[in-house]
Amino acid sequence: MNEWIIARRAAQRIGEWLEMPLPFVLEGERPRHPHEARRLLLEASGLPAKWINRLFSTGGIAVSEHGIRLHAFPAMDLKSHPLYRLARDASVSVPDILFEDDHSLVFNKPAGMAVHPSRPGEAGTLDEAALRHMLQTGQHTSVRHVHRLDQDTSGPVLYAKNDLAQWQLDEALRRKTMGRIYLAVATGRIKQERGTLDWPIGKDRHHPARRRVSPGGDPAITHYEVLERCRAATLVRVQLETGRTHQIRVHLGHLGHPLVGDGLYGGSTARLAHQALHGEQLRFEHPWTLDAVTVEAGRPSWLAPLWQELQSL
């Protein structure tokens, strides 16, 4: 294993600083001042150069008797956050937390909650709940969502709690190395046991809120496998290779099996007021230790009664 990875995993937080012991191979050439520490970090640590250089420019790299200290958790005046007043005064509850450490945070977002405000002053969002959690737990660092779910889709949503985590996780999203698995209830019986839907997705010029399969759209790839069938519907597990807006909803609708409850794409809302879509699992590489993190979100409360009702038809 890379000695720098071992050193990163052995790092300890000390207030706003993260102290990383030097790999034992460098014991004989310990850095004497921040310039040398910066050079070592740029050469071999695997940390983003832009982050290291920003730290160095603001005095955020220091040398201690135990190793190198990085100003990874600068305190933030949360009162300056645009959602501070809402988060401080709101009655919105904080959703269940599926994972949390100094670098990242994963909420189990319920259906009906938007991730971020769509207009100034909008209350009840997950961003607001995340800030409220930080205030309640005395954490005075930034918190920003890395990805989003549709308002009526439930499941895990990942937040970064410092600049390094934001950069690393954004890059993982861009490189498509973040794994997302969903459960969906599709209308009708899907015949194939599994399949891959490879149709580009673009905007629907006739409806600003909708997307559609379009030859000139962005590449979009969805993998699915059937878990269970009844006469009226199919329960499927879906894995995204890309992350286009409404991707699962558009692809399954184009396949001829819109999601139950998804009125926007042709599904009936008679038995469910929102699309039957739930994020089951989120996988990502930890932004500091590089360990594989897998977060599971249990089946939502609406799924069992919906499936039972569909089976009875």
Describe this structure as you would to a colleague.
The chain is an alpha+beta fold and 313 residues long. Helix content is 24%, strand content 27%. It contains eight helices and 16 strands. The chain has helices at 3-9, 34-44, 49-57, 84-89, 126-136, 163-175, 247-255, 303-311; strands at residues 12-14, 17-21, 61-64, 67-70, 97-100, 104-109, 144-145, 155-160, 179-187, 194-198, 201-203, 211-213, 221-229, 233-240, 277-285, 292-296. It has a six-stranded antiparallel beta sheet with strand order 10-13-14-9-15-16. Strands 1-2-4-3 form a four-stranded antiparallel beta sheet. α2 (34-44) packs antiparallel against α3 (49-57). The longest helix is centred in the middle third of the chain and has 13 residues, at 163-175. The N and C termini lie far apart (56 Å). The mean pLDDT is 93.
